Amino acid sequence: MGYDLAQEIRELKKKKNVTILAHYYEDGAIQDLADHVGDSYFLAQKGQQEKADIILLAGVVFMAESVKILNPTKTVLVPDINAGCSLVDSSPFDKYYEWRRKNPEAIAVTYINSSAEVKAISDVIITSSNAEKIIHAIPRERKILFGPDQHLGNYLSKKLNRPMEMWNGSCQVHILFNARRLHELTMEHPDAVVIAHPECEDAVLKYAHVIGSTSRLLEEVTKNPAKKFIVATETGIFHQMKKARSDVQLIQAPVEDKGCLCNDCPFMKLNTLEKIKTAIETLKPQVHVSEDIRKKAEVSLERMLKLARGESVQWPEKFI
Ligand code: 13P
Ligand code: SF4
Question: pTM of the entire structure?
Answer without folding.
Answer: 0.97
